[in-house]
Amino acid sequence: xxxxxxxxxxxxxxxxxxxxxxxxxxxxxxxxxxxxxxxxxxxxxxxxxxxxxxxxxxxxxxxxxxxxxxxxxxxxxxxxxxxxxxxxxxxxxxxxxxxxxxxxxxxxxxxxxxxxxxxxxxxxxxxxxxxxxxxxxxxxxxxxxxxxxxxxxxxxxxxxxxxxxxxxxxxxxxxxxxxxxxxxxxxxxxxxxxxxxxxxxxxxxxx
Length: 207
Description:
Elements: E1 6-12, H1 17-20, H2 34-46, E2 54-58, H3 61-72, E3 78-81, H4 101-108, H5 112-117, H6 127-144, E4 149-154, H7 156-166, E5 178-188, E6 193-201
Parallel strand pairs: 1-4, 2-3, 2-4
Antiparallel strand pairs: 1-5, 5-6
Helix pairs in contact: 2-3, 6-7
């Protein structure tokens, strides 16, 4: 008996001033800037002919606003959840990427399994933790809404960790391999995951 596959369009938020300033935004609640709103509108136009049944988003305003811009065409209310939030960077939250230089050097020397578990600070989240959050959301939603097509607004870090987990990206990929308002299309029965398409995601840098 074939299980019905649920289809997810998983979208990164548009640009923020924090992105421009190269900040570790994490779970800081920073809004889109005007460029980010235009990026979200471009993605909305690209997805306007998709028949979405539901829309979910991280509760952080940059993801929620992006999702609302895309969902507007489809007259869908956006439901929010903390499971879709960006990684928490702990004491480094709000600092520039330079704050992680020493950590990045250590990170590159580790095995894959160690890279999945290590945290950049004691109070930060690991890739394993943020991937588990996203998988929990996807599996619960797929089980509840089999066969539906679902719009999801989230963040670059959690998307990257998940795509590395699936093997579409690697830790050699550029940290910026996922552009603002990029997305990937995922089909799942709640157990297995199949990436069917990507937009604005540079998989070539994972070689």
